[in-house]
Amino acid sequence: MKALTFSSFGDSDVLEYIEIPNPQLKNDEILVEMKAIGLNFADVYRRKGNYHLKGNPPFIAGYEGAGIVVDANNHPEYKIGDRVAFADVPFANAELVAVNINHVLPLPEAISFETAASVLLQGLTAHYLATDSHKTTEGETVLIHAVAGGVGQILTQISKFLGANVIGLTSSSDKAKIALEQGADHVFLYGEDWKSEIFKVIPKGVDAVYDSIGSTLTDSFEVTKECGQVVFFGMAGGDPEPVNPRMLMDTSKTLTGGDLWSYLNSKEERIKRSNQLFNWIIDGKIKLSEPTSFKLSEGKLAHDYLESRKSTGKIILIP
């Protein structure tokens, strides 16, 4: 089979599209022929050598995608031709992927391979943020950092149909326009005095903040009302300053950590959460912008485009 690989760490020039042996299935795995693969910043971090990697060189990145079963490996619940997807299976940047049966997600006919590869990681992240990390309630106001990003766009839509008002933060007027199209009520730019702007909208502060930037964590607490909550789930802008527990006590504010892998902890949870996400898409509650597609053989171009930060929707790779 062909795969997008790298044998040393560095910029996108280390990527090689080469022929490698087909996966050897273990007893608890089925073989999936990939139809669409999601590209994420974690894949860039793996290529650079600063994120966890499985296997030996040549390394294969990728954890998200969709395709059809080509070898059910004597597992009666699957048959050749079944449409499936996954959000947390390594070595996805290949024509064939060995998928542990506990990580297989049945794919409804109404959800395309491209949609599944576009939405699973970011959509399941937005899902747990709005329903587990913070239980969104009618009439509250939430602040979403990086609101025009993949998670931000979906989190905005989920927050809105659960009844919240959404304030978003982003880096440019073009991205602000996208966030408003997704349903955000107000969007401010990082280059502005955004904290003052938020207090003009809601003088006592927001009920909850979703912070994926990290370096903004102190600012996030400043715009959170007493008894409010900050959900910290990413460090795109670098490590946060330490949080003073005395501040939390004095203001009755809550800091909650968020990581998707804490929630995708069983076959049942994976299927339940993905089914709810798929149903929201089928019902029209979540609308996804068209992904940007590259051939898997054009992986270098896809990585360059992702790192340029010019993209606003999902980037997918097609074998």
Would you list the SSEs in sequence order as H and E? EEEHEEEEEHEHEHEHEHEHEHEHE
The largest pleated sheet is described as: 7 strands, mixed
Enumerate how many helices there are, as a single number: 9
Q: Mind telling me the C-alpha Rg?
A: 20 Å
Structural class, please? alpha/beta
Q: List unreliable stretches of 5+ residues.
A: none
Could you tell me the mean pLDDT?
A: 96
Q: Total strand count, please?
A: 16
Strand content: 25-35%
The end-to-end span amounts to 10 Å
How would you describe this protein?
It is a single chain. With 319 residues, the protein is α/β, with parallel strands linked by helices. Helix content is 30%, strand content 26%. It has helices at residues 41-48, 113-133, 150-161, 173-181, 194-201, 217-222, 245-251, 267-282, 299-307; strands at residues 2-6, 15-19, 29-39, 59-60, 65-71, 83-86, 96-100, 105-106, 141-144, 165-170, 186-189, 206-211, 224-232, 254-257, 292-295, 315-318. The strands form three sheets. Strands 3, 5, 6, 7, 8, 15 and 16 form a seven-stranded mixed sheet that branches. It is globular. It starts with a strand and ends with a strand. The mean pLDDT is 96.
Characteristics:
319 residues; alpha/beta; seven-stranded mixed β-sheet
In short:
This protein is an alpha/beta fold and 319 residues long.
